[in-house]
Amino acid sequence: MIASLHNGVTALKSLTQGLQVLGNNISNVNSLGFKSSRANYSDNFYLHLNDAESGADGIPSNNIQQHGTGVHVSSISSNFSQGTIEVTGLDFDLAIQGEALPNAGGFFEVSDPVTGELFYTRAGAFEATNQGFVVTRDQYRYRLQGLDGPVLVAPLDGETLLARRVEDDGKINLVVNKDGTDQIRNSGQIKLSNFLSPQYLRRVGNGFFSNGQAGQNLGGISDNIIPATSSNGVIKQYSLEKSNVDLTNEFASMITHQRSFQAGSRVVTTSDAILTEAVNLKR
What we know:
By secondary structure, the chain is α+β, with helices and mostly antiparallel strands. The protein has helices at about 5-25, 245-280, and strands at about 35-45, 45-50, 65-70, 70-80, 85, 95, 105-110, 120, 125-130, 135, 145, 150, 160-165, 170-180, 180-190, 190-195, 200-205, 210, 235, 240.
């Protein structure tokens, strides 16, 4: 097989991976807290037929022959920039209005109540159970964690719950009526998780990221857990963060991928024509 045929095949394989990334971005344009990805391409190792050599007078020869072996997807990067904030009006729809990069203000930390495994998400669509736990709205029912364990937002004995307020700094206040008097009682503190290297987080679906298995710290978790401090963002109640996918850029990138794929396929067909002609030389 001639090298150009192999090069064309690597282009088709790599661009197919790139189109998969683009397709995933576009399909999740309405997913809460979704972060888009980008395929990064790099050239393969080179075949060195003749390297530069130093002659007797110290002048290197210029008869260099280095042939490339195609292209590959070197990595897939995640874009953690802030998505659009949408006002919903539900009291436990929470959004993180991001501050500094690399992850635009941090993540909500949630845990699996069965295994205890921790996950991180920007999709703040929560709700309160009748026991007072704050949970996500999916079937796995992860619990939102506070500074001292699970946050309980249920009224105490003798109280009537009137409203729930989540402040910018993550404090959860309950407006209750007790003995005929309206009172404000603090019931917990929302915890955010920030990472030094969020690119190392692993996507697990449902808008969740994992920092690795027990004992691992892939993303380099930060000690700062209070919203509205340092690089952590502020909490916006009655709001949700939408996907940060830019359809204009995605469609433009899809067009360039399509043209590149056509060029790669032309390399394959041209190489095939050359091989066919070589086989027919004997006829």
